[in-house]
Structure formats: C-alpha cells, structure tokens
Amino acid sequence: MSTLNSRAEEGKLAIVEVSGVGDAAGWAERNRDALHEVVAQHGAVLVRGLGLSDVDGASAVLRILGVELMAEREAFATRDSHGDGVYSSSKWPPNQPMCMHHELSYALEFPSLMLFACLSAPTGGGATAVADSAKVLAELPSDLVERFEDEGWLLNRCYNEEIGLSWTEAFGTTDRAEVEKYCSANGISFEWISGGGLRTSQRRSAVATHPRSGERLWFNQIAFLNQWTMAAEVREYLVDVYGKENLPFNTSFGEGGEITQDVVEVINKTYDSVTLREPWRAGDLMLVDNLRTAHSREAFDGPREVLVALGVPTTPLA
C-alpha cells in the first residue's frame, strides 16, 4: 500500500498536497487505501492538486474512493443526480448556512464516508467545515447528553407540494405502497394527510459508537433539522402560514418533549467551538468520516459547484 504525506497543524484541517497528477482516477485507485488511513487518523482530509474540473472526471474519482456508493433516500433538500451515487450539493439558499450535521444520521442506513469534489469555488465563504463529534459530545452539558442518551431524538417531517420536498422526491417513488413498505421496514411512523401529503416521525439514537475506534460520538441532526436553526424570518413565515405541526422538518426529544431555542443554541455553539474550516479551491477533494466528523456548508457569494458522494453504507452502533 502506498503512503501519503499529510499535514495537520493544530486547529486546522488535515491536508494532502499532490502535484503532477495527470490521471486523477488512476491516482485515486493507487492511493485509495492510504487516503482512507489518513481519514481514519484525522477524521477528515482535504486533497489539493488533483485538478478536478469536470463532472465526469470528478465522479470517477468519487466512485473509486467511495468503495460502494449509496443512493440518497429520505432527503431533506433537492440535489441533481449525476448517476451511480454522485450528486450535486444540496440546493440550499446561498445566504443561509447549513449547520453542522452527520449525513442521513436519521436513517437506519447511512454513509460512513462522505466525499466532496469542488469544481468551482465561490468568491467568498462556502467552506465545507468539519467538527470532531467526540469533542462535541465531551463539551456538551452532561445533563443534556444524558437526556438524549435516555430518550434519543425524534425527527418529525411533513411532506407536501408547497414547501420543502414532496414525498415522491424524498422517497424516489410515486407509489404510496412502496413508501409505506419503506417506512415500516425503517422504523418510521407515517400518516397520509389531506391534499396528498405525508407526515412521518422516527426515533433515533443521539449518540453512536464508532465501529473502528470504539469512540462514543455525538451523531445526529438534532440541531440542523430543528425549527430554531432556520433563519428567523423563514421560521416565522412557515409557522404563521402552515403551523408548527406542518413544518417540513422539526426535531424533539425522543419522548416528544420540545427542544427549545436555548438547547439548539448550546448545541450549535458547541459545534462552533471545535469547527475547522479551509476555503475551497477549484479542483479540491475532501473525504470525511461521517460518524466521527460532522460537516456544514457556510453561506457564500458567487458560483459554487461541489459534487457529493455517499460512500460505504453502514448502520449505527448505539
């Protein structure tokens, strides 16, 4: 197995710099195992110098490094598909950040490896920042962690044709029976509502154990998918027009207790205290251990094209 020289200064993202790479897919094939070892060591790594510049070339690299890519189900935002498990980044307003989260941590099967390829870098902002979830768990108030460990958390969703994703987009089918089958197999309670909509709820663990290291990790999307993380004007409009029970997504404690604004602020501030970021450059590649490391997308200016792949599907260890 080849080895890679990575540098990881204190308080900064680990970086591998390469040069003279004419065939990025060939380089990925030769260095896949070594790159995965760097991710295992640091939780995330940024690779510079591959010169990824087009969808086909970058997609080939993502498929090689992702080992086995999975299709996204239960999505919360639209993406463009580039086939075989490669997507655009989520279509989220550029002026609104996507706060720290672990991809599909509300699903029973999720990617253990996230892969990102930057084809076009924004003129300002837009970093895919990362945060060590073991450090987050250690820094959160112990009584809050204990409650979430005891109860888990609930993700409540309301799908309709007016706001957010429709259920046909999220589940990839127009067949209600297929949706019901999926929900029943994945521990999701569901209710068809007037107007052709769907309301769902699923209870998940807030803390997971890393299968390789045995570390206990804060692993969820409690804050990101909560109403209080929305921009204030967006939340106020949606609550006023649709009511809290019909928000496209919201979270609560596992036994149904409300997660208040102060709890969400504590979680997000804890993420902020351990966040690492490196501005994107066109051609960059990033790999993130989706269990060990949360990621975000910061607000940005100018064009930004980042491809995403969901690699190495797995199930959580509570």
From TrEMBL:
Q: Its Gene Ontology molecular function terms? A: dioxygenase activity
Q: What is this protein called?
A: TauD/TfdA family dioxygenase
Q: Where is each TauD/TfdA-like domain found?
A: 28-308
Question: What are its cofactors?
Answer: Fe(2+)
Q: Which UniProt keywords apply?
A: Antibiotic biosynthesis, Dioxygenase, Iron, Oxidoreductase
Gene3D superfamilies linked to this entry:
Clavaminate synthase-like (3.60.130.10)
InterPro entries, alphabetized: AlphaKG_dependent_hydroxylases (IPR050411), TauD-like_sf (IPR042098), TauD/TfdA-like (IPR003819)
